[in-house]
Amino acid sequence: MGSLKNILLVTFDQWRGDSLSAAGHPLLKTPHVDALAADGVYFKQHYTVTAPCGPSRASLLTGTYQHNHRSIRNGTPLDARFTNVALEMRKLGYDPALFGYTDISPDPRGMNTRDPVFNTYEGVLPGMSLVCRLDEDMGFWFADLKRKGYTLPERPFDIFLPVKNYPGAEDKGYSYSPPVFTSEDSNAAFLSDSAITYIDAQRGRPWFAHLSYISPHPPFIAPEPYNKRYDAKHVPPAKRAASANEEVSIHPYMQHQLEAMGLGTEEAIACYEGQKIACQDLTGKELDQIRATYYGMINQVEDSFQRVLEHLKEIGAYDDTLIVLTSDHGEMLGDHWMLGKSGFYDQAVHIPLIIRDPRPQADASRGRVVDAFTESVDVMPTILDLFGAAIPRQCDGAPLTAWLEGRTPGGWRQEVHHEYDFRDNVVRKAEGRLNLRSDECALSAIRDDKFKYVHFAALPPLLYDLAKDPDQLTNVAQDPAYAYVVAEYAQKMLSWRMMNDERVLTYAHIHEGLYEQPDDRHDHL
């Protein structure tokens, strides 16, 4: 009989929501992830509420929307007044351990600017104890590789360069060849080994581990045999307009975004996370190989994570551990002529979420697939609720407990919202290209089963009729026949913002003493 004793919060970085076989992918097979879903609950319509890495993790770990926490870009500090899942679990006696990274930039107020924490945006979430660091520095992993006899490159990201003269690579795309390191020596394997050692070191004491894998984040390169797991000839085609020029004509933002990726220039996209990918090659074998390699990367990190799950079972801890498996954001993977996680399309924000609740109350829901809309801000409230902790008023999400227990909560959300701030505080590219002030470089999207509406602070809106256009290729916002839809969804978005403004002191009242109204937001769940 299971119990709630330990917590394993796992993220695969840049993992698209459609890229697992449980989601019905036509090529990719993810047997270990599928098995976890069959033993837990798979939330099929799960979305991050923002991107890229830093903002998305800020929302995931604080349970707050971007317009409240305002950590809007990688490197934007997270206000120290916000609590988070690690700090709240410390109140229950846990010492949350971090394996990897959280990309949380610290609040600089009251700190010396020469403090080494300001050397990188890849800061550690307050409340997390850093057990094994793995970020762009690669230091801990590189030390392990050096002990194993590897020759380390001067530039850390060069460790991902493909080996030269790899057999069979002649007719393949650039990302077909593997790196110099083996799968057993990969950063994913390194993190899994560290987590297993940590779990054993607890000797039965309750623990909280946040295991943050970097794969399948680019560079798009996979060690053997994963580099050739999928044939590029069989990958599903990218969903995009007939040409890049047609894609940019949709909206000024798309013109800016694709220009930033090299459209209209003769030079390659500036070394996409270590790989030179020319924009014109995205129509041919390079893009197909990137997609095939991406799938292999998912299998590689999946297999590595499976060793952690098997170890939990071997030591008798599996049925005492809450397991949450998700991502920070998705990957465009050539759809809409884009790579990365910028913008408003589903591929950048639709992500997997699988939760394995070991309690007997969850037995009836094992293998359940939830089609309701869920958001990344729901993860922190879920963990706290399951462990009997109070959910802070700052949290914009709601606990998923009812879904885990086989119930269907009343009054659940009928849509998802996600935001993206595309200002550039350093170079100001977006501001210059679009002739906008920094505060005007923002968008907010609302999506349900019928429509997706994208509101820009100072640019025209977008509207997609999902029943007729599921791939979101035709903007109908200016079509008079859809004027009522634009108005309706703009009003929905305004109401959502009004109901989800910052509320920490809103429920307090001072008059002959302090009165705080009980939080009733989740009573119906």
Automatic annotation (TrEMBL):
Keyword hit for Hydrolase: yes
Record keyword Ribonucleoprotein present: no
One GO CC term, this protein: cytoplasm
Gene3D superfamilies (UniProt xref): Alkaline Phosphatase, subunit A
Pfam families assigned: Sulfatase (PF00884)
Keywords tagged on the record: Hydrolase, Metal-binding
Domain Sulfatase N-terminal: from-to ranges: 5-389
MF terms (GO), sorted A to Z: metal ion binding; sulfuric ester hydrolase activity
InterPro entries: Alkaline_phosphatase_core_sf, Sulfatase_N
Stated name of the protein: Sulfatase N-terminal domain-containing protein
